[in-house]
Amino acid sequence: MNEFMTNLIDILTKVGSRLLLALLIYVIGSFAVKHLLKVADRICDKRKLDPTVKSFLTSAAKILLYVILIVAIIHVLGVDTASIIAVIASCGVAVGLALQGALANIAGGIMLLVFRPFSVGDYVITGSGEGSVRDISLFYTTLNTLDNKVITVPNGALMNAAVTNLSKEPQRRVDLAFSLTGAVDIEKVQQVILGVAAANEKVLQDPAPFAAPLQWIAGGLEYTVRVWAAGADYWDVYFALMKDIPTALAQAGITGAAPVSKVVVDK
């Protein structure tokens, strides 16, 4: 009986010491994890990282640190950590096979955050639609269309398709086309169009506005007009020129291309 009690006391002492040590490691480890996360947060703020990148990095660091802490506690309790790591790895493989699409989106999200082909607020055109980028998360990118619809695009699809970013450059070219009669002096047409472009304050003069006949069409000539504007003024310039150029041409006596009809006289 004495030997049994002695063994029991030894076992309880060992178990109690391990539990106490595990508790101590948990308390100290939790404090250390929170402190490290605060340090990482300050570093991200100091380097002015994008909020999406900051959120992703801090979340990933938090998960990794707590996994290390849990493995350390399990090891202190006397459990074989090698078998636990093997089980975690096996579960990871199984989950990875089951979530291939989700993992592709995660990989796409990481690539978007690293290479930054577009940012929040940019206007982009994708295979799934176009609109202003409202949010870039780890799985999806959210777009707002001009008519206030919301498009959610998987990041994996974005990384495997062409994306046109209309906001990347500070300036954009506005292209217009007008069909006019061919019985008028070409230089006169150019003077009228370029005069309208020069009168618009939002049209940039460098590069200089351009207007010239592009091709013959039925009943006249098609003229191409190319002007440059700031990206934010693109649509203002487009609609203004679409209204002002035809008005100025009409005031100058220049009409549109006359329709051509073929008449066949049957005896």
Question: Can you walk through the features of this model?
Answer:
The structure is a single chain. With 267 residues, the chain is of the alpha+beta class. The chain has 3 domains: 2-98, Helix Hairpins; 118-165, SH3 type barrels; 171-251, Alpha-Beta Plaits (2-Layer Sandwich), CATH 3.30.70.100. The protein is built from 7 helices and 9 strands, in the order H-H-H-H-E-E-E-E-H-E-E-H-E-E-E-H. The protein has helices spanning 2-46, 51-76, 81-98, 100-115, 155-159, 186-199, 234-251, and strands spanning 123-126, 129-136, 140-144, 150-154, 164-165, 171-181, 203-204, 210-217, 220-230. A hairpin with a 3-residue loop joins strand 2 (129-136) and strand 3 (140-144). The mean pLDDT is 83.
Secondary structure elements and pairings:
Blueprint: H1 2-46, H2 51-76, H3 81-98, H4 100-115, E1 123-126, E2 129-136, E3 140-144, E4 150-154, H5 155-159, E5 164-165, E6 171-181, H6 186-199, E7 203-204, E8 210-217, E9 220-230, H7 234-251
Antiparallel strand pairs: 1-2, 1-5, 2-3, 3-4, 6-9, 7-9, 8-9
Helix pairs in contact: 1-2, 6-7
